[in-house]
Design a protein that fits this description.
Blueprint (H helix, E strand, L loop, with lengths): L2 H28 L4 H14 L4 E5 L6 E6 L7 H9 L8 E4 L12 E4 L2 E4 L4 E7 L2 E7 L8 H16 L1 H7 E7 L7 E2 L3 H10 L10 E8 L2 E8 L12 E8 L11 H18 L3 E9 L2 E8 L5 H9 L8 E6 L12
Parallel strand pairs: 2-3, 7-8
Antiparallel strand pairs: 1-2, 4-5, 6-7, 6-9, 10-11, 11-13, 12-14, 12-15, 13-14
Length: about 350
């Protein structure tokens, strides 16, 4: 879908919503007839993209909240954010989000998956810190009656409800759904606070991900990397294009890493690239090995970011910089640096 076609689809959704849709959906919810409007809302949302999901909930400051989300699919995360940016201002009835929000009282929550009721009061989780993410196991007695796929779907929905989709995408790693309670199990309603505390330790004072140092060994020898503590596209969903800038350097240590003079030059060009890019993109990682430093940037597909970076990279004086631009809405190009 072209950006112009996408923009028209988003505008059409909001024309429907502001003329009849919002009032009709609110009336159905308040009349306890949500099934009456499910088909119409689904049709409107799927006209934007069939992989988008939606739900309604109580808003923090409004009677209702409409969520249209990519549901973990990085390919449509930017579309969901552009849908939200085009939304009308919140009023007493409706507010809007592109990520599932945590329940105000998760202990009272419940959901139904494949005909089985999953009440959060009887749901437990185990959580284990692995680097900069938490591996989580979810268990509920009803999981024994569900198939593996349905159990996992239920686990994700429970986690989104208690911790919020943003926290799940940013800070949870491996997610498992078990028919047996893990040894370190605790009530699921406490998970949200646990994840928020875990995240704060890896964020700066403004809530942005901190930088972490990573070391390892690759095919060409030792690898040193700096990366954001979370490398989820959720932190900048409009930046859906990866720009890799490879900077060769001559001054090397015995491990083929930069010597002090090369390191100073690399830091200088990195600062210039970041300054030139400004708000048009984001540097998320830098990895160094075998005489080359690769800088990982993300920019918006139709924005000026890639061109700004390429122009500045031409000023690199220690060899020829190589710039590679790749569509990557799910940030798969930096998946190997998620710690």
């Amino acid at each position: 879908m072209s950006r112009a076609t996408e923009a028209e689809s988003i505008a059409e959704f909001w024309r429907w919503w502001t003329t009849t849709g919002g009032a009709t959906v609110a009336s159905a919810i308040e009349g306890k007839r949500p099934a009456a409007i499910a088909g119409e809302v689904s049709a409107q949302v799927h006209a934007l993209h069939p992989d988008l999901a939606w739900e309604t909930a109580a808003g923090d400051l409004t009677r209702h909240l409409l969520v249209v989300t990519a549901a973990g699919d990085g390919a449509v995360r930017a579309l969901a954010r552009r849908w939200l940016l085009a939304a009308p201002a919140s009023d007493d009835t409706w507010s809007y989000a592109d990520l599932r929000q945590p329940l105000l009282d998760p202990g009272t929550g419940s959901l139904v998956v494949a005909g089985e009721a999953i009440d959060f009061a009887r749901t437990v989780v185990g959580a284990r810190a692995v680097g900069n993410h938490l591996d989580v196991t979810v268990q509920h007695p009803a999981f024994a009656a569900l198939g593996e796929d349905d159990r996992l779907q239920a686990a994700y929905l429970v986690l989104d409800a208690v911790a919020g989709e943003e926290a799940v995408e940013c800070w949870l790693g491996e997610i498992a759904a078990s028919t047996i309670a893990p040894l370190d199990a605790f009530p699921v309603q406490h998970l949200g606070g646990f994840v928020r505390s875990f995240a704060r330790e890896r964020q700066d004072d403004e809530g942005n991900p901190q930088w972490v140092l990573l070391r390892g060994t690759g095919p060409a020898g030792p690898v040193m990397a700096l990366a954001l503590s979370t490398l989820s596209c959720v932190i900048a969903p409009l930046f859906d294009t990866h720009v890799a800038i490879d900077l060769p350097y001559a001054g090397r240590t015995a491990e083929e890493l930069p010597d002090p003079l090369a390191l100073e030059s690399l830091r200088t060009i990195e600062d210039r690239l970041v300054d030139r890019l400004g708000a048009a993109g984001l540097l998320v990682a830098a990895e160094t090995s075998a005489g080359v430093r690769r800088l990982h940037f993300y920019v918006e597909t139709d924005g000026a970011g890639a061109g700004l970076l390429a122009a500045q990279a031409d000023s690199w004086g220690d060899g020829t910089a190589d710039v590679t631009v790749t569509a990557d809405p799910g940030w798969g190009e930096v998946a190997h640096l998620r710690s």
